[in-house]
Amino acid sequence: MASSFKRLAPLLNRVLIKKVEVVNKSPAGIILQDTASQENVGEVVEVGPGQFDNNGKVIPVIVKAGDKVLLPDYGGTKVKLNNGEYWLYRDSDILGILHKD
User: Fold this and answer.
1) DSSP-derived 3-state class of residue 91
2) Which overall architecture, per CATH, does domain 14-97 show?
3) Is 70 left (phi over 0), alpha (psi -120 to 50) or beta?
4) Could you read off the pLDDT tens digit of each residue along the chain, which spans 101 residues?
5) What pTM was computed for the model?
């Protein structure tokens, strides 16, 4: 059952991610399904303001909305919102930002 909430604003260093399906094609144009890579790629939907250091200064989150990121095999918290299924991670759990170039 989906939640009636439409939006989640992450707190501190949390990042809200929508997992995406990666479509891999062979040189001949055949679509190859690699379930491992599909589970580990997501798009950043929203980020929290950052974590406080020992002096009370905010350390901002490195990723931003729209970034495609590489996720760990395990972890994160599944969140169901009115418009789909999302995952909540700490920014330190994200393995990297993916680039096409």
Assistant:
1) helix
2) Roll (2.30)
3) beta
4) 456 778 889 999 999 999 987 666 667 767 666 555 556 899 999 999 999 999 999 999 999 999 999 999 999 999 998 878 999 999 999 999 999 87
5) 0.79
